[in-house]
Design goal:
The protein starts with a strand and ends in a 6-residue tail after the last helix. It is α/β, with parallel strands linked by helices. Strands 2-1-3-4 form a 4-stranded parallel sheet, with helices on both faces. Helix content is about 50%, strand content about 10%.
C-alpha cells in the first residue's frame, strides 16, 4: 500500500487566511487536495479538521507535514502528546520550521536526529505556550480596560415588562411568589434578585 503525504494548516480565526501555510506545504510537495485546514484556536486539539485527519484519514506509513510546530497546538503538553500519538500510529511528522526533521541521517546516526529534534520541540513548544499565555494576558487586559469604560459584554438583558415595578412591589408585599414574578417578567433568578434588592421599584 502506497504511503501518502498530507498537510495540515491552521489559523486562529475566520478572518485570517492560510495562504502562507498552503504555499509552503504545496512547495514541499503536498498535494493541495491533501491539505486539511482549520480556522480555530490553538488552545487545544479539539478542532474538527484536525480530529478528522487523525481519526479518519492518516494511517501507518503516512507522512503529515505542517509548517510550524504550533499549528498542532499552543500548549507544550498537547504538542508532546500529539507527536507521541503520531509516533504510535506509525505516522511520520515533518515540520518545515525544523530542518532536522527533513534530513536523511544514516541509520547509525538516527539517534542524533531524534535528540536534536527533541530539543528543538521542547524549545519551540515552550515558545508557543508562552505566546498563548501572552495572548490570554492581552485579552484579560483588554477586558479589564473595557470594564473600566463601562463597556458591557455578552448579549444585553431582555427588556422588562412595563409593569415590572408593580410586579416587584407585589412580591415585596407577599402578594406574588418570586417564582411567578420571574416567569411573568421572563427573567432569570439572578436578575430578579438584583432588581429586588435594588429597591428601585418602591414608591414609583
Amino acid at each position: 500500500m502506497e504511503n501518502r503525504v498530507y498537510g495540515y494548516a491552521r489559523v486562529s480565526s475566520r478572518e485570517q487566511n492560510t495562504d502562507r501555510q498552503i504555499e509552503a506545504l504545496t512547495k514541499f510537495g503536498v498535494p493541495e487536495q491533501n491539505i486539511i485546514i482549520d480556522k480555530a484556536s490553538g488552545k487545544d486539539t479539539e478542532r474538527e479538521g484536525y480530529q478528522y485527519l487523525k481519526r479518519q484519514i492518516l494511517r501507518r506509513g503516512d507522512t503529515l507535514v505542517i509548517k510550524e510546530l504550533d499549528r498542532l497546538s499552543r500548549s507544550k503538553t498537547d504538542i508532546k502528546r500529539e507527536l507521541e500519538s503520531f509516533k504510535e500510529m506509525g505516522v511520520r511528522v515533518k515540520i518545515l520550521d525544523l530542518p532536522t526533521t527533513l534530513t536523511d541521517f544514516p541509520p547509525e546516526q538516527l539517534w542524533v536526529q531524534e535528540m536534536v529534534t527533541a530539543i528543538l520541540i521542547e524549545v519551540l513548544g515552550s515558545i508557543a505556550e508562552n505566546e498563548r499565555m501572552k495572548i490570554r494576558a492581552r485579552q484579560r487586559e483588554g477586558i479589564e480596560a473595557a470594564k473600566r469604560r463601562n463597556v458591557r459584554f455578552g448579549r444585553p438583558p431582555a427588556p422588562l415588562p412595563e409593569n415590572w415595578r408593580e410586579i416587584m412591589a407585589a412580591v415585596k408585599r407577599g402578594e406574588i411568589r418570586p417564582v411567578d414574578a420571574m416567569r411573568e417578567m421572563g427573567i432569570s433568578h439572578s436578575r430578579f434578585y438584583r432588581l429586588y434588592n435594588s429597591g428601585n421599584y418602591i414608591n414609583r
